[in-house]
Amino acid sequence: MNQYSASKDSSNTYLDHKEVVPILIGLMLGLFLAALDQTIVATAIRTIGDDLKGLSIQAWATTAYLITSTITTPLYGKLSDIFGRKPLFVWAISIFIVGSAMSAFAVSMYQLAVFRAIQGLGAGGLFTLALAIIGDIVPPRERSKYQGYFIAVFGSSSVIGPIVGGFLAGQESILGLTGWRWVFFVNVPIGLVALFVVSRTLHIPNFQRVDHAIDWWGALSLTTGLVPLLLVAQEGRIWGWTGTNSIICYVIGIVSLLLFVYFENRMQDEALLPLRLFKDKTFSLIAVIGVITGAGMFGGLAMLPLLEL
User: Fold this and answer.
1) Which of 94, 126, 242, 300 is most buried by its number of CB atoms within 10 A?
2) Which helix (H) or strand (E) holds 240?
3) Termini Cα distance of the chain
4) Rounded to two decimals, what is the model's pTM?
5) CB atoms near residue 267 (< 10 Å)
């Protein structure tokens, strides 16, 4: 039986360092998968688009992943409060592995976008649950130390991802598979190792079930708001920015986003994105900075590999 060390500032019990380390390895592997996949595809997307004859719609391969991972991130947090961290984290890794394997065998860019969206459904859980699990097993005064490892994972993936993606995409064939397909297939063995480690080591001694009202309407309205606006941004040059199809997308997108605000206001603290948070100036400022930083980072990752030097 494991012996848990009690924190001095809480009645909860936490794991000691030796017990945290194997769990941390599993969490870092899961987080590495999600973080790596944001960058590894970028340098390979030109090759992927040419091979699948869909370079003009390559943005959807990236956007689909980001949309589903973003929307599911808060949902995983609430579902894990109800059903437990470990089952949801194992589920997230499993979905990510399945999505990766499917992406590796995509035969069209539209199919790849769908499979990438499935990947994103798993990635959303990998991001949020790794941090939540550390909060459950480590006392507050020590959490920043362990979260530093997660920051290191993000930093290393930002460097390793584009290099590995470019290398794999440049190979004509690896073990019978086209080189770029390994950009996705490489996630499978890493994911299986993470799944094994997490299944064997993750035990949360002080988990307490918390019932939540899940903001499904908020998630649905956000999705139906973002997708049409992204669609018109992609196809507006062909349709015409004031064409019938574009106007339909504008209307659906704007109405859905207004409904999203309505649902968030109605759900209050159970909302996907509680609006009361924006009353805090620090939070609002960080949100704006995050948008600008994200636009620069992902915009650069998406566009620079497409430029012909």
Assistant:
1) 126
2) none
3) 61
4) 0.82
5) 19
Rounded to an integer, what is the distance from CA 37 to the centroid of its chain? 9
Asked, for residue 275, whether it belongs to a domain, the answer is no
Domain enclosing residue 23, as ranges: 1-212
What is the chain's pLDDT, residue by residue, as a tens digit (309 residues)? Answer: 343 333 334 445 777 778 888 888 888 888 888 888 878 888 888 888 888 887 777 778 888 888 888 888 888 888 888 888 888 999 999 999 999 999 999 999 889 999 999 998 998 888 888 888 888 888 888 888 888 888 888 888 878 888 888 888 888 888 888 888 999 998 899 889 988 988 888 877 666 667 777 788 988 898 888 888 888 887 788 888 888 889 999 999 999 999 999 998 888 888 878 888 888 889 899 989 988 988 887 777 777 766 654
**Domain containing residue 3: CATH number:** 1.20.1250.20
Q: Is residue 93 part of a domain?
A: yes
Q: Is 170 inside any structural domain?
A: yes
Question: Looking at the domain assignment, is residue 302 inside a domain?
Answer: no
Show the tokens assigned to 229: 């606006």
> Alpha-carbon distance 39 to 298, whole Å?
9
The total of structural domains in the chain comes to 1
